[in-house]
Design goal:
The complex is a heterodimer of chains A (115) and B (113). In chain A, strand 4 and strand 5 form a beta hairpin. Chain A is globular. Chain A has 115 residues and is mostly beta strands. Helix content of chain A is 0%, strand content 49%. In chain B, the strands form 2 sheets. In chain B, strands 2, 4, 5, 9, 10 and 11 form a 6-stranded mixed β-sheet that branches. In chain B, strands 1-3-8-7-6 form a 5-stranded antiparallel β-sheet, with no helix packed on it. In chain B, strand 4 and strand 5 form a beta hairpin. Chain B contains no helices and 11 strands. The chains are: A mainly beta (115), B mainly beta (113). The interface between A and B is medium-sized, with 30 and 26 residues.
Chain lengths: 115, 113
Amino acid sequence: DGGITQSPKYLFRKEGQNVTLSCEQNLNHDAMYWYRQDPGQGLRLIYYSQIVNDFQKGDIAEGYSVSREKKESFPLTVTSAQKNPTAFYLCASSLTGQTNTGELFFGEGSRLTVL
Amino acid sequence: GQQLNQSPQSMFIQEGEDVSMNCTSSSIFNTWLWYKQDPGEGPVLLIALYKAGELTSNGRLTAQFGITRKDSFLNISASIPSDVGIYFCAGRRYGGSQGNLIFGKGTKLSVKP
């Protein structure tokens, strides 16, 4: 089945540790995104990538890093520089260019808790 | 970053009642999307709107793209327990970049059997 797979579903981290969240899609979408969700908040964009080997900062990129070495994969690293990393992280993908309908397709999310 | 004004923030209704929620913005949008998020899951697209005045239905759900292009509403008729969740609106402005999809803060719907 086509879709977006995020892993792990739950992750616990000690303060000062970097962690990497995985996001893989087999929808053949060019664009991929990472959002952060906090209780009672909307989705805030961390990073996005429209093409392999290129990505742009979103609204809250500080303390995060990404890579886009393959079309299918867009991992997010939450670094120790992120002051408040406990949150629910959502990966999404979409078409681009003339075929872009504006619709994002989301993964099931990864919940990160810093102990 | 800018966020849409989505209301109400939460609703607690009786099964069988109709539900209405809306999003407004000071900016003109060319796309409105409505998503539903179940607890601990990612949002799922319910309805997409691309034209001012457009009215689209998906089962018991109906959404409209406001004629001013600055608002949208979602109605759910005859609610059932599985309608429980958080509903998000999202919009993209004219000339918006690929990353420029703006989300509302969500409407949390609780349905009492």
